[in-house]
Amino acid sequence: MRWMWIDRVVELLPRERLVSIKSVTAAEEHLYDHFPATTLSDGSVRDAMPVMPASLIVEGMAQSAGILVGHAEGFREKVVLAKVSRAELDRDAMPGTTLRYTAELRSIGPQGASTEGAVELLDHARPDDGFVRIGRIDLMFSHLDRNMAGLAFPEHNFVFSESFRTLLKTSGIDCPF
Prior knowledge:
Helix content: 10-25%
Strand order of the largest sheet: 1-2-6-7-8-5
Largest sheet: 6 strands, antiparallel
Shape: globular
Mean pLDDT: 91
Radius of gyration: 18 Å
Number of domains: 1
Distance between the termini: 15 Å
CATH class: Alpha Beta
Low-confidence stretches: none
Order of helices and strands: EEEEHEEEEH
Structural class: alpha+beta
Strand content: 35-45%
CATH superfamily: Hotdog Thioesterase
């Protein structure tokens, strides 16, 4: 995985819950394509409104929940996102905010796992408001090596890459790979 959509794991209760954070900064190139300043048909100009795309917020939850699922089995399984069961977001994340993802493990078995997640936002312009819940994202994961199609995948765990190892180590989490 080249792109990381979380910055740090701040809490891990094995097989129960993982909490991570992502700081949204003006230095992130993708924000300026979403949405640039535009000249409207009447000649007026709509100012740029850089926001983190909702799909990347979902991916941040998928990475958080995926780490929780992978950790439950000592990262022996290749864990991949299989289904977004629910994705509801009420607000945009803009530069100067921090996202907090809380992923909870609902079920886990040989074929995969399901998680429920809450997304919260801290606006650093209004820090006294604290983290405010802005959405819910429920996900299902598959363990690739136990897929029902019987497909073979490379032996090494290509899902939990060097990027994830670095993230886990800097977050104080031991990883066996």
